[in-house]
Amino acid sequence: MYSAGVSLGPDPLARVLGVLCDAGRACSAAEIKQALQRTGARRADVDAEWPRVQKRLRHHPYVVVEGTRPLTYRYVPPKPPSPIEAFDALLAGGLPADVRATYVDLVRDALRRPIAAAALDAEEAGRRRQAKIDSLRALAELAIEVEELVANEASGRTLVQRVRSRLKRSALEPIDRAGEETTYDRQRHKPIGGTIADGAPVVVVRPGYVWKSDEGDVVLSRPVVEE
Question: What's this model's pTM, rounded to 2 decimal places?
């Protein structure tokens, strides 16, 4: 046995595995030895220990041996166990302290996930409820204003203007106006009854509305027309 084993530490295999892990690729024996020497190990000590380390590398569960001459060695990190596997291993006992701590963290994270998901679901439900309340409040305010205008015997034109003004606050804009004459466009209008030829003169029976959103216009309803 060489006298300066301290250069590679009590476990030379661990030093070699560290080299492979840091490299992140397959390394030849020469590259491994050079990397060990750069960390302070003496060449004579590395050469003396290499045959034993090489034998252990070939049978190591996390090392893949590739090629023929020269052989290369690639470190493949172990796949972490599932939370259930980690829990079973903890129950069985006998795990090293560092492994036990890692498995405990795995189980804890798995237990937190449903709680986090439930919290997110509750938050999303709260946002949806608030959005529904906001839309219903806007609708209620519109109904209140219309009823107030009718009670004060406001004209139809005034009613329409006030309604359109309030809807504009919600980025809603009308398409055409009831009672006006226009030409039929099958992409824009919805006919009453049968088909209408494009370009035919029509009367708007009911206006449409479009929502002017940041992501683009959304047609909520097309104007209804008739010849």
Answer: 0.41
